Amino acid sequence: MASHVGGVQTGAAPGRAHRAVSGWVVFAAVMMIFGGAMNLLQGISAIRTDNVFLVTRSYIFQFDLSGWGWVHFAIGVALLVAGCAVFTGAMWARVTGVVLAGLALVANFLWLPYYPVWATVLLIVDALVIWALCAGPSRGDAARAEAGHTEAGRAA
Fold first, then answer.
1. Longest dimension (CA), the chain
2. Prediction pTM value
3. pLDDT tens digit string along 66-106?
């Protein structure tokens, strides 16, 4: 195992590049898993047509309540899976996370008349996920960190 000057082992084999996973990416992954679980529960509740939802008659984006439930259920499952993939630090997982969080943001905006408080909380969570995924390290940052780590290893 490779170690740097401080003696802390990195866990990566010598010569094997590892992806940079910053605190923002970990935050985004955790929030995606949380948001996915909340969307999943929201979907299950709507599919069961619980009495907690307000069904409006004059809403322009009117689906059947169970139709909205299936939409939120599918988005919730996708966010859970993508949130776990974001922990790897892969760029494809971050891009997928941004797309899915954007879809969840739109779905929760359209869900506002049915359950305003829950929808508002999930709107904020989805916006934070998008921001954190976009604020995470770029490929250039990962390459610079790897080059700096390699140089520090050679100096020791």
1. 71
2. 0.71
3. 888 899 999 999 999 999 999 998 899 999 999 999 999 99
Give, as one character, the DSSP assignment of residue 136.
S
Which of 38, 140, 148 shows the shortest CA–CA distance to 91?
A: 140
Contact between residue 119 and residue 105 where contact means Cβ atoms under 8 Å apart: no
Contact 137, 20 (CB under 8 A): yes
Distance CA 87, CA 77 (A): 16
Spatial CB neighbours of 63, under 8 Å, sequence gap ≥ 6: 71
Q: Write the Ramachandran bin of 107: left for phi over 0, alpha for psi from -120 to 50, otherwise beta.
A: alpha
What digits encode the pLDDT tens for the residues 96-136? Answer: 999 999 999 999 998 888 788 889 999 999 999 999 999 87
Size (the chain), residues: 156
Q: What values do phi and psi take at 63, rounded to 5? A: -110, 165
